[in-house]
Amino acid sequence: DLNSGHGTHVAGTIAGSGVMSDGKHRGAAPDADIIGYGSGAAVLLLDTIGGFDYAISKQYTFDNPIKVISNSWGSSGKYEPLGPVSLASYKAHNMGMISVFAAGNDGPGEDSHNPYAQIPWGISVGAGDKFGKLAGFSSRGLKGETGDFTMPDGTQWTYNNEVSVVAPGVDIISTRAVLNAAANGGDADIDAIEPQNLPFYTMISGTSMATPHVSGIISLMLEANPQLGYRDVQEILAYSSQNPTSSTSGWRTNGAFNWNGGGLTVSHDYGYGLVDAHAAVRLAETWI
Fold first, then answer.
1. What is the pLDDT of residue 225?
2. pTM for the complete prediction?
């Protein structure tokens, strides 16, 4: 991504090898295969449906089939079940691909949630900081907003205007687009990144940075258990994430492996809590 550097940073969080930092800044799933599709020009999104079309038409073109579509982009407004993005992601869902969407950076007000992230067959990702607190900019859903709808194939669905999970999204170091310094982290990089690594890495914040973290975790989960469906992935992330004691304090484990007793709650602000990669993969390995 030489237009903005955004996609370069996101891709590195998913599957960067970390080779230029001796492994320090590698991504969540460094052995995953990445297929990039350029949909923008600077800050403009020009061909988002084209990205889904490419994934759908090329799913089995590469050495391994496409299984996860990571979407660090979005909009504002009300979710439209029969809108183009919803329909495109639903087609991908029917082909076994899981869509992960950024919740948006319009927080902390409620009902600031990316409408594309509200698809019931996907994952919506909010952002937390490295101390386990929900980021102020992370978009929130609207408590109690839900709706039933029917897709063109006759299937019935229910959407909820709430975030699914939260992942680290504040001051995230990942791969730098060398040809576009203006869109990278700026002066903050100098204090955060070793001088020898500055040409290769940059630091950016946003739910765009949290989303690829979750996409990488899902890739690891699918490697551990290729039979997982979208609902399995949603439930495993819910049961293995850490619930916050409040939106402004740290996070605590939610007793993920005792989930049969019930008691899990979801917040329209932070979903089921902060993702835990190790717990998610362990649970995926034994999921039936």
1. 97
2. 0.91
